[in-house]
Amino acid sequence: MDIFTEKLTLKTHLSKLKAQNKTIGFIPTMGALHKGHLSLIKKAQKKNDIVVVSIFVNPTQFDKAEDLINYPKTLENDIQLLQSVACNVLFHPSVKEVYGKNTVSEKFNFDGLEHEMEGKYRDGHFDGVGTVVKTLFEIVNPDTAYFGQKDFQQLQIIKKMVKQNRLPLKVKGCKIFREKNGLAMSSRNARLSKEHRAAATFIYKTLKKTKKRFHTKSVNEICDWVTNQFKNHPLLQLEYFTIADEKTLKTIEIKESDKKYRAFIAVFAGEIRLIDNIPLR
Ligand code: PAF
User: Which atom of ligand 1 is nearest to the CA of 133?
Assistant: First the structure.
């Protein structure tokens, strides 16, 4: 695997490959790689000649300084994992290399997608994500980029950004990769205590029950039921639960037969904030 820390050398390397008509699949990450990331890499390998992974803990997408400081950083282990799945290229730049002198984000208008759900709780988060992903796309110039559906709102926003800026690439959303017990894989899981990790399986169990209820109950009834499930939970604290239209990400109150909906949830397990979602149709 070739490892690059400078964007210019990476660009030169990749443009040589592009000149040989090689296709490039790209997986942007913040490291602390897990099986979910590896499944994205495998997916990219099936469809592309070259797979590029970036590891960059992007400071502008964190609204809380301690969250950035505590974000798991496991570069040695990540490199070994990438080598074990025969990834071709790792891009691991410094903050200065990505942002230059000013570590600030661009201000985006994603047609309102950025104001829903996560946008209400994480100030400036999607400006940070948009800025870094756009920058990485410009550096790597991939044919296809792969993202997990756990961050479904992020995925929709990135698709919107690609469309708005007419960037010449495809964005593929990939199914959520789960532990055997149903917990959605996330780099943040590494920070869960044993008790919180076990308790967190309740999140997906509740989502699965939500899906069943969706056929017979009203949206309000389901939301009340979920709120009650978490009300007296000793280890988990519900931040939000909502049923939203997949396209607009707007919370719904009434179901319409021709629309696709998802249930979205954010929960604190101790200090660790976990998100998950499930398609309802
Ligand atoms: O999902 C992530 O890991 C990050 O938000 C991303 C897309 C790599 C941007 O920093």
Answer: 9
